[in-house]
Structures are given as C-alpha cells and as structure tokens.
Amino acid sequence: MMKTLLLTGFEPFLHFKKNPTMEIIKELDGQVIGEWKIAGRIMEVDFHKSGDQVIGYYEKVKPDAVISLGLAGGRTHITPERIAINCNDGEKDNSGFAPAGEKIADEGPDGIFSTLPINAMVQHLHEKDYPASISNSAGTYLCNHVMYRMLHHLQQEGRNIPSGFIHIPASHDMAVESRRLPSWSQSDLTAAIRLCIEVL
Ligand code: PCA
Fold first, then answer.
1. Closest by alpha carbon to 14, among 81, 123, 96?
2. pTM beyond 0.70
3. In this structure, what DSSP letter does residue 132 have?
4. Active-site position among 23, 59, 81, 198
5. Rounded CA gap, 113 and 135, in Å?
6. 60-92 pLDDT, tens per residue?
7. Mutate which of 15, 91, 143 for ligand 1 pocket (most atoms within 8 A of beta carbon)
8. Ligand 1 center to 124 CA (angstroms)
9. Which of 3.90.550.10, 1.10.10.60, 3.90.226.10, 3.40.630.20 would CATH assign to domain 3-199?
10. Residues contacting ligand 1 via CB (< 6 Å)
11. How confident is the model at residue 20, as a pLDDT?
C-alpha cells in the first residue's frame, strides 16, 4: 500500500541567496519513491511561524513519515541529525527576531531523538559513494526548532511514525560566490535525498 511522506524544505536565510532544499522539494513533490508518495512543502525561516507550519502541514497531509531538510552551509556531508534539543538560539531569523537560549517547550524534554533510520541512511549513501555521516547536533536555529516541534508533537499525540531531520551542504552555484563554502551539485543533493527516502 502506498504511504505518504511529508518532505519539507526551507526558504533562503541569513546571507544565503538560495536554499538548495527548495530545489529538492520542487523536484520531488508528487513523485513516488519506493512505497512513498512525496508531499513536498516549503517553510519560512521564522521562530514564531515555522514550528506551527510543520505541524500544520502534518495535520493536513496526514503523512506516515516526516523528513525535514535544511541547508548547513559549510558542511561537506549529507548529515541525518541524531537529536533535537529544547533550545532556541542564534542569529536573527527572516523576521528580524533573534532568540537568546529560550526553551522551545517549557515542559518539554531536554532532547528528542530522531525516529528516522539514520544509520541505514548513512550506510546506503556510502554504498552509492555519497559522503554522509550522522550529525550529533542540529544546532539551535530553525532546523533544530522544526525537528524538535515535530517530534514533540508526535510524542504528545502518541503517534509512532518515523520523523526527523537531514542537513545538506550548499550547492555549487552558492559556492561560486564564496571561496569557503564546500558544495555539491544540485543533482547529487537531490539524488542523495532520494536514497535516504529509499531506506525509510
Ligand atoms: N538551515 C537553517 C534554517 C533553515 C535552513 O535551511 C538551520 O540549519 O537551522
């Protein structure tokens, strides 16, 4: 039976002029990968909106799994995240708001582990010669925020479906403007996320 995967990406943020997760969402939305039908959605980079956005998409799409994608400019590998922490911190978001270490959920747990098959994803990527490793920190910015909010919501609902976050490197066109940004081709980034979905 066909299952539905909610796959989210983000708009550009900080000094980045684009976000390669948007291209992945555009390309994979509506596609079928293995037994998964992809529902692709884009989120804002906004501490007051993004968490409600991902949960809103979840309520509408009623998916059987959730994978959120984010750009980690500077990383060289595809990095499934191990854990989200109960903390908002970092630079100004796209609305101009900068948090200062507040909790995401006052009564929430300090950390919530990804329920995606992160080891199998990394192994599958290695088999196809894509650099990949598990990341032990999704940071404290919007990516961690969205990962935490979605996992916490599922915990509260008592719904046991795979959910988590994957950070990706910048794309080549972004690196043209910067000498310090490791980059992948957009087609390799998209192919790597396909492989992650295959092992779901
Ligand atoms: N990356 C940021 C937020 C949006 C995105 O694509 C992050 O790593 O938190």
1. 96
2. yes
3. B
4. 81
5. 12
6. 999 999 999 999 999 999 999 999 999 999 999
7. 143
8. 24
9. 3.40.630.20
10. 10, 13, 19, 21, 45, 70-72, 139, 141-143
11. 98
Known catalytic residue at 177: no
CA count, 13 A, side-chain hemisphere, 41: 22
* Cα 151 to Cα 81: distance, rounded to the nearest angstrom: 12
Position 49: which residue type? K
Query: DSSP string covering 18-84, please?
Result: --HHHHHHHHHTT-EETTEEEEEEEE-S-TTTHHHHHHHHHHHH--SEEEEEEE-TT--SBEEB-EE
Helix (H, G, I), strand (E, B) or coil at 85: strand
Instruction: Give the residue, by CA position, lying nearest to ligand 1 atom 9.
Output: 143
